[in-house]
Amino acid sequence: MAFNSDFLSTSIQPPTLNNIDDAFQLEGSEIIDYTHFSIALSSQTKFAIWVAWNIDGMNLKRIPRKGVGFFEDSRIPSVSQAGNQLYKSNPLDRGHLARRVDLNWGTYAEAKKANSDSFVFTNIAPQMDSFNQSGKGGIWGELENSLYDQTEMDKSRVSIIGGCIFNENDREYRGYKIPTEFYKTVLYEEKGALKTKSFILTQDLTRLSFLDLEAFKTYEVAPSEIEAKCNFTFDEAIHQANEFDLNSFIQTERKPLMQSSDLIW
């Protein structure tokens, strides 16, 4: 099963694109389904506009990564997806948007299929190896773990919507724009009430050569900021359940989240 809009007791639809032509159309739809996740693929950047996935925390399986390779989606022309030609012989890593371990739940066969599907290039975005391999991601990589640590989620179920953010001045490499920002919107329920948190990771590419954690900063944001940057509209339920105060940083400098204890779920 792909992304399930009814995975939580509150139904959450994937983002609605403001311009349907922004996305690659597969059999007349901008939504491309995989096991436990779905995506909308940008027709311009060749990366995901959004990836939506479900996590069943009570039914996660330990599936080894070894032996599973990255692959292009055979349903999509190679020219419409960023494949291995972008990543070979350079310091760019193939970074998962929907985390591999998040998807590995259900029956063992189901989890194994989700594990394999997570390596499709449409779920991959370029990340510097210093970020993706050596723990330089800081709090970004700990968002899901922190959620489990700090909350009592109903049924340990989470849905997440994430993807790339592109800006006009992003670098171009081998014919592809390299995103300097990524976003995640996390959805969960406590005592039957929907809660949401939205985050943006900013990569300062001018500092990446120094292998400096300061090159990667995570900020909590309002869902509307992601909508403006990505040209889509979130389900209204996400806005209604989000408690982030847009005015909280208007008067003062926005400060990054530096450690898990900075997160208030």
Radius of gyration: 18 Å
Low-confidence stretches: 207-213
> Major beta sheet, specifics?
7 strands, antiparallel
| CATH homology superfamily name | Extracellular Endonuclease, subunit A
Distance between the termini: 28 Å
Give the SSE string: EEEEEHHEHHEEEEEEHEH
Under CATH, the topology is which?
Extracellular Endonuclease, Chain A
Class from helix and strand fractions: alpha+beta
Number of domains: 1
CATH architecture classification name: 3-Layer(aba) Sandwich
Shape, please?
Answer: globular
Quote the average pLDDT.
Answer: 90
Percent strand = 25-35%
Question: What is the CATH domain class?
Answer: Alpha Beta
What is the count of helical runs? 6
Helical residue percent band: 10-25%
The strand count comes to 13
Strand order of the largest sheet: 2-3-4-7-10-11-12
Short description:
By secondary structure, the protein is an alpha+beta fold.
What does this structure look like?
By secondary structure, this protein is an alpha+beta fold. It has a single domain (16-262), classed as Extracellular Endonuclease, subunit A (Extracellular Endonuclease, Chain A). Helices cover 15% and strands 27% of the residues. It has six helices and 13 strands. The chain has helices spanning 100-103, 108-117, 129-132, 143-150, 223-230, 236-241; strands at 16-17, 32-34, 37-41, 48-56, 92-96, 124-128, 157-165, 172-173, 176-177, 181-190, 193-203, 216-221, 232-233. The strands form four sheets. It has a seven-stranded antiparallel beta sheet. Strand 10 (181-190) and strand 11 (193-203) form a beta hairpin. The radius of gyration is 18 Å and the shape is globular. Residues 207-213 have low confidence and may be disordered.
